[in-house]
Specification:
Layout lengths: L1 H5 L9 H8 L13 H4 L7 H8 L5 E2 L11 H12 L12 H15 L9 E4 L1 H13 L5 E6 L5 H7 L3 E6 L10 H7 L4 E6 L12 H13 L3 E5 L25 E6 L12 E4 L2 H14 L5 H13 L1 H24 L12 E2 L10 H12 L1 E2 L1 E2 L11 E4 L4 H21 L1
Parallel strand pairs: 1-10, 3-4, 3-5, 5-6, 6-7
Antiparallel strand pairs: 2-8, 7-8, 9-12, 11-12
Helix pairs in contact: 5-12, 6-12, 7-8, 7-11, 13-15
Bound molecules: pyridoxal-5'-phosphate.
């Protein structure tokens, strides 16, 4: 740094070309290489243009955003207020408060029968988003391959690439109810495969894993000695009698599983930014290192609110899931009735109807629907090429709005069919 500023001609000047041409003639200008390659390599979001249009419009019914329309339960908000009133305004342990970790350990054991030690196997993160980032960064070496089902959540590929890894997509289809086919997973394994990344219940498809498929994927992970990241942020939002089992509860899985979850979806706490990771201490220790240096600790007030959610939030989850379930039926039946084939999603709060019968691509459908009927949905291709022919519709929206959206979508589809 010092030598740079003292060498004549190597100071930053008003004209950077002087710097480039006189001092480093062999290097291309900084402007062409300022971004790291792995960042440059990640394409900009395919739905950017679409959201630009959305931002200019009013009276849009949005089925686009993946977050609960409910507010955080009242007693959880109050717990946050009490936390501040008690001047709990300092850092917590890097791991998160021990009270929240203990409550989470108890919660996970009660739900799934897997015991995590709250002192060294649970880390509180800034949302499921941070959980994904630090988990992948702590465990991926350059060139390591990570198998990801597609279509899948928009952050997975970038997170793997930012960590220097290589995402290997395994397509899932409507015909298979978007459950991962174990044979395709096994076929995608190479000597460089380090991990499988799972997200069931799934964003964007709403799919869950049938137990026999989940068992087979676990057997594959054990047979090939793979790590499994499992993003179970929608674990509490399941319907139709589906019984959620966490991946780490399956034989041979606990020691190779990085379980990620969060409070955003089940407790309607997106803005509080609390997530978590459960993993064996040898793995969590490394993940903690990354978290410690980039985050320090998740917000104290939000951790205190999350603790209240764990203690008293069950009736709220039941109330919201009941509502989502009604809306899910409404939307799925509505799509099928208008001839847009929609498999029955048993998890999360998304429907993923097939729109290819309209003759439009996913993007063209979403854009025209927005412009002609002011209904926002997300093109399936935003979640990978395997999403072509579908759009994602979030039903965490009021029943009245969903009914109106269905009417508008039907008008749109009828018009399109009449024109083809
Ligand atoms: N994982 C999945 C599958 C998601 O859909 C989301 C949010 O949409 C997240 C993780 C991140 O959630 P948060 O960071 O709010 O906990």
């Amino acid at each position: 740094m010092t030598s740079q500023t003292t060498r004549p001609g190597n100071r930053l000047t008003a004209d950077p070309s002087i710097l480039n041409s006189e001092v480093e003639p062999t290097r291309p200008p900084l402007s062409t290489r300022v971004l790291a390659r792995r960042v440059d390599e990640v394409p900009r979001s395919g739905i950017r243009r679409f959201f630009d249009i959305l931002a200019t419009m009013t009276d849009v019914i949005s089925l686009g955003v993946g977050e609960p329309d409910f507010d955080t339960p009242q007693q959880v908000i109050e717990a946050g207020q009490h936390s501040l009133a008690a001047r709990r305004t300092h850092y917590t342990s890097n791991y998160g408060t021990i009270e929240l970790r203990r409550a989470l350990a108890h919660h996970i054991e009660r739900l799934y029968g897997v015991r995590y030690d709250p002192t060294e196997e649970i880390l509180i993160t800034v949302g499921g988003s941070e959980a994904l980032d630090v988990a992948v960064r702590a465990t991926i070496d350059p060139g390591d391959e990570v198998i990801v089902h597609e279509p899948s959540y928009v952050s997975y590929r970038p997170a793997i690439i930012f960590a220097g890894g290589v995402p290997v997509g395994v397509p899932t289809t409507c015909e298979e109810d978007f459950a991962l086919d174990p044979a395709k997973v096994e076929a995608a394994i190479t000597p460089n495969t380090k991990a499988i990344l799972l997200n069931y219940p799934c964003n964007p498809t709403g799919a869950v894993l049938p137990p026999e498929v989940q068992d087979e994927i676990a057997r594959i992970a054990v047979r090939h000695d793979l790590l499994v990241y499992t993003d179970e942020i929608y674990d509490r939002l399941v319907y139709g009698g589906y019984q959620m089992r966490t991946m780490s509860s399956l034989p041979g899985m606990r020691r190779r599983t990085v379980l990620m979850g969060g409070f955003s979806k089940a407790y309607a706490m997106t803005g509080w930014r609390i997530g978590y990771i459960c993993a064996p201490s040898e793995i969590l220790e490394g993940i903690l290192k990354v978290h410690q240096y980039v985050i320090m600790s998740a917000p104290t007030v939000a951790q205190d609110a999350a603790l209240e959610a764990l203690k008293t939030g069950e009736p709220d989850i039941a109330r919201m899931v009941g509502q989502y379930d009604k809306r899910r039926r409404l939307l799925v039946d509505g799509f099928n009735a208008m001839g847009l084939q929609c498999f029955e999603p048993l998890g999360a709060f998304y429907a993923f109807p097939k729109i290819s019968s309209t003759g439009l691509s996913s993007e063209a459908f979403a854009e025209a629907l927005l412009q002609e009927e002011s209904v926002a949905v997300v093109p399936g291709t935003a979640f990978g090429a395997a999403g072509e022919g579908h759009v994602r519709c979030c039903y965490a929206t009021s029943e009245g709005e969903l009914r109106e959206a269905l009417i508008r979508i039907e008008h749109f589809v009828t018009r399109r069919r009449a024109n083809t």
